[in-house]
Write a structure and sequence with these properties.
- By secondary structure, the chain is mainly alpha-helical.
- The chain has helices at about 5-15, 30-40, 45-55, 55-60, 75-90, 90-95, 100-110, 115, 120-125, 135-140, 145-160, 175-184.
- α2 (about 30-40) packs antiparallel against α3, α2 packs across α11 and α3 (about 45-55) crosses α6.
- The longest helix has 14 residues, at about 30-40.
- The structure holds fe (ii) ion.
């Protein structure tokens, strides 16, 4: 397990480990940037853009030397959210913490959602607990930042293109630094 407490730690971690495979034809850093670009294009807040960029940081923290193993649930969303909470606050950490439950929620409320998921995301649903029951979906809608988490989930699902990137992780460093400084 790697400890990250500053934006510099985050930048170093993605610099050192970002080339690890995300597992669906893209690297961790490519996936991160694609999700942030989708968030930006949707008109999301800076906090949600940074959440999109860093939503899988837990994978890099937990699995520093290997790609994620989708056959086990590593609770990467909680590990990542814990690392981000002190640095950026709830507007970043809560959507990150909820991006896996958001998938279970969308599988419950949107019948078109599951069939459109990537094969890896379909396979990991079971180990993540499966689609929510109706009462679980209602409870999810009472959580703070649940809408942001659903939006983040859509960026996550869309950020797996094998086309060449037009943006870079470094492009988002000023935004991360600004958000972190507002937190202090
Ligand atoms: Fe992701």
């Amino acid at each position: 397990m790697i400890t990250v407490t500053t934006v510099d730690d985050i930048v170093d971690l993605y610099g050192a480990r970002g080339r690890l495979r995300y597992g669906e034809g893209v690297t961790q850093v490519e996936h991160a940037v694609q999700c942030a670009v989708l968030a930006e294009a949707s008109g999301a807040s800076d906090a949600l853009i940074v959440a999109a960029l860093l939503h899988d940081v837990g994978h890099l923290v937990v699995h520093p030397d290997e790609t994620a193993d989708f056959s086990i649930d590593d609770h990467h969303e909680l590990v990542g959210a814990e690392a981000l909470a002190d640095m950026f606050g709830a507007a970043v950490s809560r959507p990150v913490a909820l991006h896996v439950p958001a998938k279970r929620y969308l599988c419950a409320v949107d019948r078109d959602y599951f069939p459109a998921l990537s094969r890896a995301s379909q396979m990991s649903l079971d180990v993540q607990g499966g689609a929510f029951e109706p009462a679980e979906a209602e409870a999810f809608e009472r959580l703070s930042y649940w809408r942001e988490a659903v939006a983040l989930r859509r960026f996550d699902d869309g950020g797996k293109s094998d086309e060449a990137a037009t943006r870079h992780f470094a492009d988002f460093i000023p935004m991360m630094r600004r958000l972190a400084s507002q937190r202090c």
